[in-house]
Amino acid sequence: MREGVQRRGAFGRLVRNPLGAASLLVLALLVLAVALAPLLASQGPQAASLAHAFDGPSGGHPLGMDSAGRDVLSRILYGGRTTLGGAVVSVAIALVLGVPAGLYAGYRAGRFDAAASWTADLVMALPAMVVLLASRAILGSNVWVLMVVLGFLVAPSFFRLVRGIVADVRGEPYVDAARVSGLSDLRIVARHVLIVVRGPVIIQVALVAGLAIGLQAGLEFLGVGSGSTATWGAMLNEAFQNIQRSPVLLLWPGLALGVTTGALVLLATALRDALEDRAGTPPRRRRADALVPADVSRDDRAELLSIRGLAVAYARPDGTEAEVVHGVDLDVRPGEIVGLVGESGSGKTQTAFSVLGILPDGGHVTRGSVIVAGQEVAGLPERRHRRLRGTTVAYVPQEPMSNLDPAFTIGSQLVEPMRHVMGLSRKDAAARALDLLRMVEIPEPEQVLRRFPHQISGGMAQRVLIAGAMSCDPALLIADEPTTALDVRVQADVLDLLRRLQAERGLGVLLVTHNLGVVADLCDRVAVMNGGRIVETGPTDRVLRDPQDPYTRRLLDAVLDDAPPRAPWRPVEARSETA
Ligand SMILES: Nc1ncnc2c1ncn2[C@@H]1O[C@H](COP(=O)(O)OP(=O)(O)OP(=O)(O)O)[C@@H](O)[C@H]1O
Question: pTM to 2 decimals?
Fold first, then answer.
């Protein structure tokens, strides 16, 4: 049901886009005219009367007659059947071969993937025109046969497209979750994978159809076609031979080819925009001053991070906005650890992302003020916000492994940002990277610098990310569930490390978490979030001991500290013996 709504939404966006509407209209008219050729043309495409050769337009023949006295309109319309039909054949064959093979190879990997990728690379390396000329010599000049060969030649483009996308999503947590929940591979592919490849494949269809039409016309123009069938390429060839006598004969097939391939390319562009939801103009970012409410005074605001009345909204496809954070006030002072707690979806991450200026596409700060180290960042242009990231405010993400690039060593991932942001030489940056790894207590730091992310543990990866966050000496650290992905013992080590860094460097820390244990352990103050609002804020001791807001009380009640302890686990045999 939801999918249906999305599909209608994409089509709606396509027809609302002027480019999409115009190209769809042109293609629909072309297909209609070609389908109705027997009704629109006054005679068949091969009916010739030499007496009327090169006649100009007349009542029954609005585009005139060609060199053999055949009706040009009729040949354009019937020729369109072969030209467009040939493109449909090529695309259909390419789809049937390329998409399932790409799905299977991308999802299953292994030997089939290796063999199919090798074959696809080989076919793509062949020059299409030369293969088509050779096929014509072997298989004959029938245009439909050549289009089948072309289908084989372009199938690898679908294969590689689909394989690449599927290989990317194969490792996504939601696909793993579907696997763990017992869904069959076929069902996972149908439900989770096809939807991801659908958009790019549709775009590729439009592009390949244009390519097939161009190649077919090129072959016919070179005189490689059968000559007996009317096609736009064959018409170009004949017109070219009589260019001195009647240049206008080049115009009609040239126009038909140009308009069709142009409409297909424009349709592909509009489809991409519609499927990626780019049709709607994103809401313009307002300047910082426009976002700050008039009554926000700077007197009572913390000097490191001070948020007042922050609201964040996402643009919906229908042009309206969904507000997900509704007027948040929050302060972090230098040397202070503030916990931002709340259940999933309460708006913690959106608040943190607003400070960092990394809200996802479609999300933007609609009102309020966010001051970081004295600078207003709400509505700040990306270029200026980027300068603050790393240097003034740094970020430690939730999932250490997925935040390290598997293709680069730990060393290069630490060194490059320092060279870029701090202007250090490679040697100095490498020395500093080593110091940083020592600072976060990584054993054998020299070796770790040379390792790739898959060669270190999750706990070590999180220490590396903390080292990276500290590399440019930030004043404020935003840590978003920094220990959630780690096991309990490693969690404690990472929390110890954060506490030590904060104490040694006077760092301000905004700790986003849903774990009240972590808050009790680490935070000086806590702000409790629910439904996009801060419902309670205060010193950690006070809030945990004497919560004022009913939501905070519920959150505390949900912690199972007072629950009766479970019986210790014993093996099954031991239990049955007792019984
Ligand atoms: N890209 C997005 N587009 C639209 N809405 C979004 C987007 N990202 C988040 N939201 C919405 O914003 C609200 C707050 O999300 P947020 O990620 O801040 O929650 P959270 O408290 O950090 O939860 P969690 O602990 O699960 O990360 C949610 O209702 C969510 O649906």
Answer: 0.57
